[in-house]
Amino acid sequence: MSRIEVLKTYKIYIGGQFPRTESGRYYSLTNKKNEPIANVSLSSRKDFRNAVVAARSAFGGWSSRAAFNRGQILYRVAEMMEGRKDQFVKELILQGSTKKSAEAEVTMAIDRLVYYSGWCDKYMQVFGTVNPVASSHFNFSVPEPTGVVAIIAPEESSLLGLISVVAPCIAGGNTCVVLSSNSKPLCSVTFAEVLATSDVPGGVVNIITGISSELYTHFSNHMDVNAVIYCRENSEEKKIIAQNSSLNVKRTFFWTKDWLKSESENPYLMLDLQEIKTTWHPIENIGIAGAKY
Amino acid sequence: MNKTKTSEQPDTSLNFFNDWKYAPAPESKDHIQLKKQYGLFINGEFVPPTSKKYFDTINPATEEKLAEIAEADEKDVDLAVNAAAKAYNNVWKKMPGKERAKYIYRIARMIQERAREFAVIETMDGGKPIRESRDIDVPLAANHFFYYAGWADKLNYAFPNRNPQPLGVAGQIIPWNFPLLMAAWKIAPALATGNCVVLKPAETTSLTALKLAEIIAESGLPNGVVNIVTGFGKTGAAIVNHPKVNKVAFTGSTDVGKIIQKAIAGTSKRVTLELGGKAANIVFDDAPIDQAVEGIVNGIFFNQGHVCCAGSRLLVQEGVADIVIRKLKDRMETLIVGDPLDKNTDIGAINSKEQLLKIQEYIKIGINEGAELHQSSCSLPNKGFFCKPTLFLNTSQSHRLVQEEIFGPVLAVQTFRTVEEAIEKANNIPYGLSAGIWTDKGSKIFNLTTKMRAGVVWANTYNKFDPTSPFGGYKESGFGREGGLHGLLPYLSL
CB-based contact (8 Å) between B476 and chain A? Predict the structure, then answer.
């Protein structure tokens, strides 16, 4: 008799834990032949709000980590994914990808993590400035993370798209709450398992599954969210998100890209989620005119 | 002397006034030539508004009428936007950066040449002390043009691996606190990056923007590249909502900023918002106290407190609270409040009656909330809109006086014990524009500057500005930067 397979329960990821949705709701995922694949959590507003609390509490620690350390942790995520490559490929195929495109997507997603891992301790040098002010002050500007970012991840590019958006966000020291693809949610949950075993502190990335139409207003009107990224095409949702963002002057971005292209990875996406801070300090003005050294 | 033995608070007041009176030193306004009536600057010339409506602009220090200003309606805004779009497509976007730069350099030079005239008009129209308009507003405005002129042909060096392109027509709305300087902050980077401009100055302070329009016309800048339309909120709304405007840049209150952010939702318009603030000026017990007191005074009383980055909350460590507050009160006594044109004046006129009423309302609110009011004993002129330098002691974090932007010479004082408490209190507001830190300890400065959720941090100084230095907020103080290399970004697509 062949062995009975152990099926996986796909849960959501909040604050480093894997709870089911508090709502108790689920939706069924089927393959092309209409056979059931999984029951996925249909997350609620309350799940989202819990995730924001987790993201906010993680922000102080994550943003003040050494840039080098953040780079190492992102690299560790790539390492963990490399080991689970087959699982991701299998899930993508289960959700309709061809083997070839699934493999391409997974390897590119891993490489993208390595790419942003390398940026962690470099973007500050590219985007920071020392400003030659006319008065006798030392003046410098550095990028700092915006804070808690709410992300509605791409619907189609369910793994590569998700990682292409989350990586520049957390590489820059932000924390996030992500709504993953509704039709292809499996990889996002497996990615959460990778995160949980990769030294990424709990709460830095929170991933919930569900429907954008139920959640996008909450993503955009939560007063403790600093920025929203929306990666889908629905223009009505875009408009309402932009309107709601005005409630607390959220930074709002619509990232719709072909995530397979190499130009879709660049540090300017990181810059979108950075605030520029400028610090001034007086310089003592002794011994200038006579200096001969 | 027994007195010093028993008194814990030695007399530190500076009683100059009793034996050292300042003679009046008014700046002459004889050379100022103002037209009776100003039209709208559209497509390179001054034209009357289609509505034929004008409103008065007055000197807030004397309540005398200075000139009549045109009120632009939707039709006028449409003309201006179309002129800008035409200039953009036909001339400006095709012009090499090197040539664009030369026009901007010209504007910088012409402001320098006419600096005195600009300073006097700025003070007459807005009420700020001549010392500030002469030494800060006008030179900084000229420098801003000079700085950004040089960027026009170097944009590829600012953003590695990109090919930056202009956006098109920038609709820009500016406030009344630094009328010419804000016009420069808006126009200079827009032109350097190859955009055309429709700018609306604030209704109480249109004159220097219109004088700048004269300079722009004289500079030979192609018609339509810069258009200046005057009016009220309705005029601003017409700019924001115009379909041919590609970018909105707004400096003003957080309330209006939110309305603008909402209004452009669903469009492809880019936006930058430089909004309100409620900055904490934090004085630690190891601070150089006398310098800190000067910094507190400069932080809150500079430009009558009409400064979005004003240090309007003083957080002082308990150990030095008594001495700092005593010295601050003494210093407030020496501030000269009065004729803005007098070169000795420290605090000029409140910009408008409306604003004065708002400040007075907040003073009432402060008293009703149970805070302890202290004002300098100075006398105020009989005419015009003036407010005594004011501070409130015993305020707490939940007071409206602490949470809300007043935009006047009113300081809310709180105390703290630990560094953590200072950080918590400083950040616990919706705003995040600026902060001040006073301490002799370098490591504390670097700790605090990273902990402040604010765009500009002044350490052992306050209210300093420079064209090379990016300025802008975190949180509800807006987004986008003005000044420096970072100030180019809002006007480019990368």
Answer: yes
Tell me: pLDDT of B131 over 50: yes
In this prediction the ipTM stands at 0.94
Tokens standing for residue A5: 């397979």
| CATH number, position B186 | 3.40.605.10
Residue B274 falls in the annotated catalytic set: yes
Instruction: Give the residue numbers spanning the domain of B198.
Output: 37-275+475-493
> How many interchain CB pairs under 8 A, A with B?
114
For B455, name the nearest residue in chain A, comparing CA atoms only: A277
Model confidence pLDDT, tens digit, residues A65-92: 999 999 999 999 999 999 999 999 999 9
CA B94 centroid distance within chain: 33
Residue B480: CB atoms within 10 A of its CB come to 23
- Superfamily name with CATH number, domain A46-280: Aldehyde Dehydrogenase; Chain A, domain 1 (3.40.605.10)
- Read off the pLDDT of residues B303-328 as tens digits, 9 standing for 90 and up: 999 999 999 999 999 999 999 999 99
pLDDT at B1 over 70: no
Asked, for residue B21, whether it belongs to a domain, the answer is no
Quote the minimal CA–CA distance from B438 to chain A in Å. Answer: 10
- Residue B343 sits in the same domain as residue B260: no
Q: Which tokens belong to A19?
A: 């709870």
Which has the closest alpha carbon to B77: B277, B271, B242, B292?
A: B242
| Whether the Cβ atoms of residue A43 and residue A185 lie closer than 8 Å to each other | no
Query: How high is the mean pLDDT of chain A?
Result: 95
